[in-house]
Amino acid sequence: MGAGHGHGASTESAAGRHRWRLAVSFGLVAAFFLVELVAGLISGSLALLSDAGHMAADVVVLGAALVATKVAVRPDSTGRRTYGSYRAEVFASGVAVLVMLGVATYVVIEAISRAGDSVEVQTGPMLVVGAIGLAINLVSMLLLRAGAEESLNVKGAYLEVIADAAGSVGVIVAGLLVIWTGAGWWDTAVALAIGVFVAVRAVGLGRQVLAVLGQHAPEGLDVDGVASDLESLDGVADVHDLHAWTLTSGMNVATAHLVLQDGAETAPVLQSAQQLLRDRYGVAHATLQVEERASAHCAELSW
């Protein structure tokens, strides 16, 4: 019996490679948040306040993402975190979901409470601050876009910035509608639409976070296909106890038991299996247990 380990994974996660993007975006958003909050209070615009709430969510989400990328590579002093602290990035994405849902809930409740009320808003601050906020969010989106394809952590921040950019557009649209129609309720209606949009985005990200924490197979990876490809390798008679999951974005992990054909050598089979998992399925770390056909008495577990 032998064991094989694929050690092709980098010690730096996908989010860690894009940490500078998170840092620059965090600085831009944090610098603008207080300006938008004050402008929202002065103008009386719920749409502007909702966008300020999104900015606050951005600050929390980007800050959590930055902390998570630092924690993820911190050496383990307890000896208990055998996979390190990479999951901190996934928890940061969970924080992003909760913050987005919280902001969306506040905006929707506030919009409903204003229903039927006569609302007066100052459109000048709405348009100016909304335009500046949109510019900042567009810059942040460009910075985070590349990392969002690789990292769930960066994707959480990216989606939050997209939602905030939509909020800034909503602020501008609301201001223009109030000017054109003279009806202040447009501000409330746009704020309500923004809140619903943010909630939908949060639910989508939340499903991805739960899939990682639930140790589902990586998205797009066909477990049956992996088993079939492993069985087709020279020297492999059977494959069982195959498991695959995502540790954090860009770090897929798998384990499997390989039953060798009579006369097959262990080392070539392990090398072929690890290369297959790495090159075809993006599994850079594989732990493989090899069994001789005649002595393969590994009983399948019920879980």
UniProtKB/TrEMBL annotation:
The keyword Iron-sulfur does not apply. The chain crosses the membrane at residues 22-46, 52-69, 90-112, 124-144, 156-179, 185-204. Residues 23-213 form the Cation efflux protein transmembrane domain. It is a multi-pass membrane protein. Belongs to the cation diffusion facilitator (CDF) transporter (TC 2.A.4) family. SLC30A subfamily. It comes from Nocardioides malaquae. It is found in: Membrane. This is Cation transporter. It comes from the Bacteria. Keywords: Ion transport, Membrane, Transmembrane, Transmembrane helix, Transport. Its main location: membrane.
